[in-house]
């Protein structure tokens, strides 16, 4: 699953700032081999802060031990027959569960089933004929069924349950990652929402599939399944496995039979109903299909076209062929997360549905790779409990790196990987947990930057620590030994130990089982033919381990030659000694830039100038360019050097350098810089570089308007949006006629910028535009739109306009399809109107009907 925390990052990047927000202090890398340590410490260690009794803000609040689910039964097979009442948003269900006691004899069955009307529960034979009715009790969350006798582990029984699922009539919960747990969703059920298709879809992770069928809703329960979906003949259906038959019915409906022949976890069961165009590819004779809205049929391969190549790459790289019957991908409306790896049928949020022009700004290949890769790590081998979620998500996260490395370049992969480290480090300021967490309050809390970002970064570290061959062979062994089973972190460790012959507890204990990360301080000196390198681990050992860190150091000299040395850091304070005839001009700690850490290693200007040229890892080059950028006010001569990096072959260096000059107020001559930036705006092949260059020019180029007006014809929406926003600061209200040229644009870059400009200018008469744009947007983008709309609402003067604004926003605040975050953003947008007693009463009347407790609690905390 791609969670919403990642989607929020993407939304933050929409307006032209790509991955250049790298910290000036960068992490380190490693290789292999050892070096001699010296007992002396010629460098005075930095004074570490004295201990105090105050706990850090990020200390975990803990929680009860979260055990894996105890399996009383094996769920051998589930048969479902379903049909829908669109008006009531109900599903009629008929389930037959085939069960076998796991080990101990059983007399009762307890099934998860949330908010059903249970019509009957029966014991049936292998031909599905009723043997007898069974007694049961039901508390709206679980059915407890009394069997007709005690069943041993050699016995098999089948239970038939007839029921009605009512997903909208239960208390809904959600998290940042998965905003709702209804399980079954009716989109535009009455067909009265303009511009939105009617759809039905499901989302099972973590335990929401029991909202539409009775089951054991736990990740370590695997089953085979047959699903019969009855819908109006105009609709397309999709589910797990193969479509084995379609039967037209006399009432204008059709029943589709989908068969999943290989066992998979309950939460990976899915179905989707809607008006979709289907575009088909194939891989090794297996169907590969893309389900998109009909208007996007011509762009289906734009979005998903690399899937067959990904299937081949991952199958070969991990020496384990894609095991499932087919692979489908479907884009749905108002999804409650980013994407979901349902077995053979992944679902994707609407943002992924782009045309060729929009793909210039956002290539979604990484999300396609992520969900596909789960079909090995997550679907084939599944975390036995949510405590072990990184066995799913860290691997899928790292697949993004592997795909970029294979398809584009290692530079591209390393550059993107930095955003993962930044994401984790940002989260670590308020939260530090072990990757494998057996103690937590809510399983939804596992879907965070630890499980995804830090986990993927840690796998990259493991790869470099044990070597490529051992890493991929170990991962392959893990898949082969645990295929179609549930696993925990020990299974992964043991696979790598089997391959390498090494005890890897030291690695797994400190990186997977402990919270935190290294905070490394590096200081170097040279005297008497020796480099002395002090390495301090400054993290608090009361809460964070002192790490064992094998790593590589590269020494450079002015003549351009270099030497590498390997060390292993083991202590809180260590000094390493290296004999050289001449003082190195540059020392790069963690050459491969792979340690998940905060690393402080100050260098002089000459060292950073050399590092920007010669470092082999792109992030060490980015670090040097950023450090040089921090020096240009004090040393304007560096502008000439940095201008050369505006022409660097790698787009990330060009973009980073362009951002450095934004708002520069120093005394240096920027005319050559401005000329290069103008050239980048006109000719750079990367839209984020063009947008960043344009944004920078708006702050330093006195003759900015001509290039900005030219940029309005750019192929990139991001560049156009950047031009509009930058120009509006200069032109003021006279920008409005230019905005009108883009009034019909649906692209989020254009819409968000237009919204911000209208709000800043207080442009009259734009409420109908806001109404139309909110209707066009998916739920995830609406929350961002509401945040930009708040300023516009503040500018309203007329009472009738204020009332209209309330009516527009409350449509989404009270919409059952809106997520918790969108509802909160909607009410926040209306907060400027609460001083009007009439409007306040209307807003509070709607709020009093809100069933989502998370919305109420969040607004109360904000003093609403």
Automatic annotation (TrEMBL):
Q: Which residues form the Peptidase M1 membrane alanine aminopeptidase domain?
A: 306-511
Q: Which reaction does it catalyse?
A: Release of an N-terminal amino acid, Xaa-|-Yaa- from a peptide, amide or arylamide. Xaa is preferably Ala, but may be most amino acids including Pro (slow action). When a terminal hydrophobic residue is followed by a prolyl residue, the two may be released as an intact Xaa-Pro dipeptide
A single BP term in Gene Ontology:
peptide catabolic process
Q: What EC number(s) has UniProt assigned to this enzyme?
A: 3.4.11.2
Cellular component terms per the entry's GO annotation = cytoplasm; extracellular space; membrane
Q: Mind listing the UniProt keywords for this protein, alphabetically?
A: Aminopeptidase, Hydrolase, Metal-binding, Metalloprotease, Protease, Signal, Zinc
Q: What name is this protein filed under? A: Aminopeptidase N
**What organism does the UniProt record list as the source?**
Flammeovirga pectinis
């Amino acid at each position: 699953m791609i969670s919403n925390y990642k989607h929020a990052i993407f939304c933050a990047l929409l307006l032209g700032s790509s991955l250049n927000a790298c910290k000036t202090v960068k992490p380190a890398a490693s290789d292999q081999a050892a070096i001699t340590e010296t007992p002396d410490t010629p460098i005075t260690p930095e004074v570490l802060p004295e201990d105090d009794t105050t706990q850090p803000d990020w200390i975990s609040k803990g929680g009860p031990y979260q055990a894996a689910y105890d399996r009383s039964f094996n769920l051998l097979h589930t048969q479902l027959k379903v049909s829908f009442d669109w008006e009531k948003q109900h599903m009629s269900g008929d389930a037959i569960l085939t069960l076998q006691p796991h080990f101990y004899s059983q007399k009762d069955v307890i099934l998860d089933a949330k908010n059903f009307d249970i019509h009957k529960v029966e014991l049936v034979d292998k031909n599905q004929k009723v043997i007898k009715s069974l007694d049961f009790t039901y508390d709206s969350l679980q059915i407890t069924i009394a069997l007709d006798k005690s069943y041993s582990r050699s016995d098999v029984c089948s239970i038939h349950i007839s029921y009605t699922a009512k997903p909208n009539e239960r208390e809904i919960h959600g998290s940042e990652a998965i905003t709702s747990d209804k399980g079954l969703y009716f989109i535009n059920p009455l067909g009265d929402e303009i511009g939105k298709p009617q759809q039905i879809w499901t989302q099972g992770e973590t335990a929401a599939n029991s909202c539409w069928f009775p089951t054991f809703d736990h990740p370590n329960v695997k089953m085979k399944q047959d699903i019969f979906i009855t819908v109006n003949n105009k609709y397309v259906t999709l589910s797990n496995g193969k479509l084995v038959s379609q039967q037209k019915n006399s009432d204008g409906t059709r029943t589709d039979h989908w068969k999943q022949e290989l066992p998979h976890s309950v939460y990976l069961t899915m179905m989707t109903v809607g008006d979709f165009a289907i575009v088909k590819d194939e891989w090794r004779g297996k169907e590969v299909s893309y389900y998109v809205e009909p208007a996007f049929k011509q762009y289906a391969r734009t979005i998903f076209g690399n899937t067959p190549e990904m299937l081949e790459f991952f199958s070969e790289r991990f020496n384990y062929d894609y095991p499932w019957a087919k692979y489908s991908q479907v884009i749905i409306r108002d999804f409650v997360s980013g994407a979901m790896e349902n077995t053979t049928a992944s679902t994707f949020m609407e943002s992924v549905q782009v045309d060729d022009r929009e793909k210039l700004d956002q290539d979604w290949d990484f999300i396609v790779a992520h969900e596909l890769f789960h079909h090995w790590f997550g679907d084939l081998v599944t975390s036995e409990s949510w405590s072990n979620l990184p066995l799913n998500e860290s691997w899928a996260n790292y697949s993004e790196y592997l795909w970029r490395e294979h398809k584009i370049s290692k530079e591209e992969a390393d550059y993107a990987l930095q955003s993962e480290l930044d994401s984790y480090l940002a989260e670590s300021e308020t939260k530090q947990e072990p990757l494998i967490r057996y103690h937590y309050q809510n399983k939804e809390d596992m879907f965070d930057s630890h499980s995804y970002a830090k986990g993927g970064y840690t796998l990259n570290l493991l790869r470099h620590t044990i070597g490529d061959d051992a890493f991929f062979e170990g991962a392959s062994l893990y898949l082969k030994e645990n295929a179609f089973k549930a696993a925990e972190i020990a299974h992964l460790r043991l696979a790598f130990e089997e391959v390498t012959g090494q005890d890897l507890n030291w690695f797994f204990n400190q990186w997977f089982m402990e919270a935190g990360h290294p905070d490394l301080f590096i200081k170097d000196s040279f005297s008497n033919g020796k480099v002395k390198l002090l390495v301090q681990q400054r993290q608090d050992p009361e809460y964070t381990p002192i790490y064992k860190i094998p790593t590589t150091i590269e020494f450079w000299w002015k003549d351009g030659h270099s030497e590498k040395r390997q060390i292993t850091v083991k202590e809180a304070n260590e000094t390493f000694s290296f004999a050289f005839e001449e003082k190195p001009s540059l020392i790069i700690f963690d050459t491969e830039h792979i340690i998940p850490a905060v690393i402080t290693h100050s260098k002089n200007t000459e060292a950073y100038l050399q590092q920007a040229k010669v470092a082999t890892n792109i992030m060490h080059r980015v670090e040097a360019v950023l450090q040089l950028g921090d020096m240009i006010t004090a040393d304007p001569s560096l502008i000439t050097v940095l201008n050369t990096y505006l022409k660097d072959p790698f787009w990330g260096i060009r973009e980073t350098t362009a951002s450095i000059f934004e708002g520069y107020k120093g005394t240096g001559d920027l005319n050559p810089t401005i000329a290069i930036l103008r050239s980048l705006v006109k000719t750079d092949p990367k839209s984020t570089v063009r947008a960043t260059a344009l944004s920078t020019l708006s702050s330093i180029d006195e003759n900015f308007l001509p290039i900005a007006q030219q940029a309005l014809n750019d192929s990139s929406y991001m560049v156009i949006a950047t031009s509009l926003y930058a120009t509006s600061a200069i032109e003021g209200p006279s920008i409005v006629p230019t905005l009108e040229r883009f009034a019909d644009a649906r692209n989020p870059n254009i819409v968000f910028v237009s919204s911000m400009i209208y709000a800043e200018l207080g442009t009259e008469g734009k409420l109908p535009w806001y109404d139309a744009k909110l209707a066009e947007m998916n739920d995830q983008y609406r929350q961002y739109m509401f945040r930009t709309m708040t300023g516009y609402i503040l500018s309203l003067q007329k009472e009738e306009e204020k009332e209209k604004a309330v009516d527009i926003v409350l449509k989404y605040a009270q919409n059952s399809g809106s997520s918790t975050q969108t509802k909160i953003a909607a009410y926040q947008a209306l907060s400027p109107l609460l001083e009007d007693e009439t409007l306040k009463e209307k807003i509070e009347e709607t709020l009093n009907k809100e069933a989502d407790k998370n919305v109420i609690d969040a607004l109360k905390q904000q003093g609403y």
